[in-house]
Amino acid sequence: MRRPRHARPILPALLLTALLAALSPRSPAQAQAQTPPPDPDLLARGRYLGETVAFCGGCHHAFGPRMQPIAGMELAGGRVFAERGMRAVAPNITQDRETGIGDWTDAQIAAAIREGHRPDGSLIGPPMPVESYRGIADRDLAALVAWLRTVPPVRHAVAERSAYPFALSPHGGPVASVAPPEDTPVARGRYIAVNLAHCMDCHSAQLSEGRADPNGRGARGLVLEGPWGVVQAANLSSHPEHGIGRRTDEQVIAAITRGVAADGRPLAAPMGARAPVWAGMTPGDLGDVLAYLRSLPPQD
Ligand code: HEC
Ligand code: HEC
Fold it and tell me: CATH fold of 180-300, please?
């Protein structure tokens, strides 16, 4: 059968329209509506990373006057960091479209976490640990984004903007694509302690501009001032006196998961308040963190 001549361009034209529609940038609303439900394993991984290992809420929850998280305001922002001469304010990272990041695409959220810039191109400053998060593997980053998408929207306008006494510089260097394999405990422990839980942002010698020195990991670190007074992050290197060289595995794990020092003293809030959260880390992850800490050369 011969097709009428005028019908010939119709099919290609329809295909072209469909193709253009598929390629054209979609509005976040459409993007969200059309996104299939995330793979349950990816979402579970993201929840574990976001709520436990990386504990984004430690900075992004809304807190009351005695630093108690306000119920119903999870990840709604507002915590002020008045340290190192800066006054940084944690933004609302719930799915609220106006006051949170509900309008951002997955790629924009991923770029904020791992590359440190917002959709408008502005840079994200400290203490958001972007330098550490640059090492987050692709799959773990996708998992975090999948989890953030499930965070209920909370309308909370964080009015104050961060003010830095120094110019923010773009974050450079490569970003990670894959995580170290399961059977490399020291490398996996480093990935958890350096990149995900950002332990070493506090537990490292500090460079003058308040950045952790990657060559000083494990040395006595960041000085933190707050309702708990002034406290300095402990030396976690294998130094026998200044570090944890003589501590038993149980003592080190108790500090991380119960917030108690080797002598039974409760550790100050920057560490103590996170311990109940880190108690939820898998025994495998805790073992890897321990293996990594044990590998740190002695530091004074
Ligand atoms: C040590 C504190 C801290 C931790 C931990 C932290 N953040 Fe942040 N984050 C901040 C601060 C402070 C800012 C704002 C910095 C600025 O104003 O430039 C920020 C900014 C952001 C932004 C940009 C939002 C906006 O509207 O500008 C996103 C997205 C974000 N963080 C996501 C996360 C996620 C996801 C995690 C956990 C994986 C996380 N953050 C962990 C402190 C933190
Ligand atoms: C926000 C900063 C901060 C982060 C992040 C942090 N710590 Fe700490 N940590 C501290 C401070 C401060 C102390 C000392 C508290 C005190 O002396 O009361 C401490 C103490 C410790 C101790 C006790 C050392 C000793 O002498 O007994 C261990 C072990 C430890 N941290 C491990 C970790 C690990 C592992 C992580 C990541 C999973 C981590 N910390 C993340 C600030 C931090």
Answer: Cytochrome Bc1 Complex; Chain D, domain 2 (1.10.760)
**From 45, 80, 97, 124, mutation site for ligand 1 pocket: most ligand atoms within 8 A of C-beta:** 124
Closest listed residue to residue 281, CA positions, set 248, 249, 258, 251: 258
**Protein residue with least CA distance to atom 34, ligand 2:** 199
Six token digits for residue 235: 């030396």
Neighbouring C-alpha atoms within 13 Å toward the C-beta of 76: 15
Predicted local confidence at residue 208, as pLDDT: 65
Q: Which ligand sits nearest to residue 260's alpha carbon?
A: 2
283, 184 contact by CB (below 8 A): no
For residue 224, list its beta bridge partners: 231
Residue range 38-156, CATH number: 1.10.760
Is residue 21 predicted with pLDDT exceeding 90? no
The residues of the chain that CATH labels 1.10.760 are 38-156, 180-300
Model pLDDT for residues 250-286, shown as the tens digit of each residue: 999 999 999 999 999 999 999 999 999 999 999 999 9
Residue with the bigger pLDDT between 141 and 13: it is: 141
Give per-residue pLDDT as tens, 52-105: 999 999 999 999 988 889 999 999 999 999 877 889 999 999 999 999 999 999
Distance from the CA of 221 to the center of ligand 2, in angstroms? 9
C-alpha angle 219-257-49 in degrees, rounded to nearest 5? 90
